[in-house]
């Protein structure tokens, strides 16, 4: 197996487009598709072939990489691609699909003779564009020679969680990691909202925690997006964060764990989306602290 592959990328939003570009830069042949074609068209200038349909995109593909909104969307798109899927091709499923959906996706892979890898990624727009994502992967050892060049093109490291993609071990780890990311994002927004309400300069808070164990780069980065009105283009959108938060809550419910913070996070993201911030960076959950669309100005 050559390390130069034909890779079909289905879903070229914030993450998928960046991953497709890095696959092209690594020397792979990339065939891209997106439901809204305008989001995929710019990839042609980078050297990717932009397809009119999922079936056209997967023609001759060694690897099919899905980076879609959720599990049902991934299953629907792969159903559209099914007539052109090559038996024995590898399916790298990078959508944050949730535990329940993974079983359906793995079943589809078995029915169509695909080698299934559960491979969500950690990271947002900037690390995706730089090829510095962390890939969380589960799948058979015998197919890893094929997927490793793909993971190396889009990520800085790969963390293997198991040999059976259908078990969803990579997705489970992704949900655990995202539960922390979403909680911190909302905590940052509430710190800024409370500072505004109490007429406290947020910089005084940063001075208090500076260099100590409570300080963290992520807090400062997300706060900066709000304070400097840099919520667009999104690193990771509010609407997608709301979806992921709900998947986390559902996972907790399924296994008998009450996740109060995750539930509150989901509600905050949903409220911010309803206020018109759904396409903005998830730091815009800050606005959920106000009854109407607020402002970050002091």
Q: What is the 3D shape?
A: globular
Order of helices and strands: EHEEHEHEHEEHEHEHHHHH
Supply the number of helical segments: 11
Give the overall pLDDT as a whole number.
96
Strand order of the largest sheet: 3-2-1-4-5-6
Number of E-type strands = 9
The low-confidence parts are 294-298
Rounded Rg? 20 Å
Concise synopsis of the structure shown:
It is built from 11 helices and 9 strands. It has helices at 14-25, 54-57, 71-81, 99-111, 125-129, 144-154, 169-197, 202-209, 217-227, 238-254, 260-277; strands at residues 6-10, 29-33, 49-50, 63-66, 90-93, 115-118, 121-122, 133-138, 155-162. The longest helix is centred in the middle third of the chain and has 29 residues, at 169-197.
Characteristic key phrases:
9 strands, 11 helices, alpha/beta, 3-stranded mixed β-sheet, 6-stranded parallel β-sheet, single chain, 298 residues, 47% helix
Structural commentary:
The protein is α/β, with parallel strands linked by helices. The protein is built from eleven helices and nine strands. The chain has helices at residues 14-25, 54-57, 71-81, 99-111, 125-129, 144-154, 169-197, 202-209, 217-227, 238-254, 260-277; strands at residues 6-10, 29-33, 49-50, 63-66, 90-93, 115-118, 121-122, 133-138, 155-162. The strands form two sheets. It has a six-stranded parallel beta sheet with strand order 3-2-1-4-5-6, sandwiched between helices. It has a three-stranded mixed beta sheet with strand order 7-8-9. Strand 4, helix 3 (71-81) and strand 5 (90-93) form a beta-alpha-beta unit. The chain is globular, with a radius of gyration of 20 Å. The N and C termini lie far apart (59 Å). 47% of the residues are buried. Residues 294-298 have low confidence and may be disordered.
């Amino acid at each position: 197996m050559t390390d130069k592959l034909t890779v079909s990328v289905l879903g070229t939003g914030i993450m998928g487009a960046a991953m497709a570009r890095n696959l092209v830069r690594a020397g792979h042949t990339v065939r891209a598709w997106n439901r809204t074609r305008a989001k995929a068209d710019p990839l042609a200038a980078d050297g990717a072939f932009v397809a009119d349909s999922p079936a056209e995109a997967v023609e001759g593909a060694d690897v099919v990489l899905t980076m879609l909104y959720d599990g049902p969307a991934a299953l629907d798109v792969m159903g559209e691609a099914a007539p052109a899927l090559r038996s024995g091709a590898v399916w790298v499923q990078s959508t944050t699909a949730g535990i329940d959906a993974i079983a359906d996706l793995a079943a589809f892979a078995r029915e169509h003779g695909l080698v299934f890898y559960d491979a969500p990624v950690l990271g947002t727009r900037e690390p995706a564009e730089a090829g510095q994502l962390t890939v969380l992967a589960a799948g058979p050892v015998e197919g890893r020679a094929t997927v490793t060049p793909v993971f190396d093109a889009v990520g800085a490291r790969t963390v293997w969680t198991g040999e059976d993609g259908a078990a969803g071990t990579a997705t489970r780890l992704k949900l655990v990691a995202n539960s922390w990311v979403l909680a911190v994002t909302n905590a940052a927004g509430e710190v800024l909202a409370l500072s505004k309400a109490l007429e406290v300069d947020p910089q005084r808070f940063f001075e208090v925690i500076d260099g100590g164990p409570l300080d963290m780069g992520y807090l400062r980065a997300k706060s900066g997006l709000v304070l400097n009105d840099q919520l667009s283009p999104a690193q990771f959108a509010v609407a997608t964060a709301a979806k992921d938060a709900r998947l986390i809550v559902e996972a907790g419910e399924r296994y008998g764990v009450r996740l109060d913070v995750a539930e509150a996070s989901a509600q905050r993201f949903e409220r911010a989306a309803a206020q018109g911030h759904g396409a903005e960076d998830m730091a815009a959950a800050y606005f959920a602290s106000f009854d109407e669309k607020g402002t970050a100005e002091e």
